[in-house]
């Protein structure tokens, strides 16, 4: 998974998958953004287990934001999570369950959180 994508409007901001080499940067950012002390095993998992869809936004190679999500079958999700989805989705559909999302403070409000105008990842 070595794809790197470039934002159409911000060519220096790129998207790539997280990898184990990112753990220290990701830990530091999580500590800044979230009041949760994730165990080391979690960082290992989100950067190496393909069940997670973990993307970093980078600017001149520095991580300035990331999203960690898990692709789940709707039939395997908790009822309270299913309840916020539109009812027309079949149980066989998949949903991205977002575990973490953050953007470095100085780079917020530039469309990075919503991946505004980004290229398709397929
Ligand atoms: C939430 C966050 C990721 C947004 O990143 P960003 O790059 O500034 O977002 P964007 O510039 O792409 O803005 C996207 C939209 O999200 C909205 N938004 C920002 N923070 C929000 C929040 N806490 N709740 C709801 N909407 C929010 C913005 O108003 C904007 O909407 P608009 O385009 O209609 O004006 C960023 O503020 C952040 O890292 N916050 C700290 C960590 C956090 O709270 N993460 C979310 C919980 S896991």
Automatic annotation (TrEMBL):
Pfam families on file: Acetyltransf_1
Listed GO biological process terms: chromosome segregation
Residue ranges of every copy of the N-acetyltransferase domain listed in the record: 25-113
Enzyme class: transferase
InterPro entries with a match to the protein in the record: Acyl_CoA_acyltransferase, GNAT_dom, NAA60-like
Family per similarity comment: Belongs to the acetyltransferase family. NAA60 subfamily.
Full protein name: N-alpha-acetyltransferase 60
Organism: Pinctada imbricata (Atlantic pearl-oyster)
């Amino acid at each position: 998974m070595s794809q790197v994508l470039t934002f159409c409007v911000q060519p220096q901001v790129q998207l790539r998958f997280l990898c184990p080499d990112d753990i220290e940067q990701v830990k530091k950012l999580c500590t800044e953004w979230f009041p949760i002390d994730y165990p080391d095993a979690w960082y290992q998992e989100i950067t190496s287990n393909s069940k997670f869809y973990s993307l970093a936004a980078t600017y001149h190679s520095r991580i300035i934001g990331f999203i960690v999500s898990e692709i789940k079958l709707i039939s395997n999700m908790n009822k309270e999570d299913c309840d916020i989805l539109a009812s027309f989705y079949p149980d066989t559909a998949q949903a991205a369950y977002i575990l973490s999302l953050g953007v470095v403070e100085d780079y917020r409000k530039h469309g990075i959180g919503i991946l505004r105008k980004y290229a398709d990842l397929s």
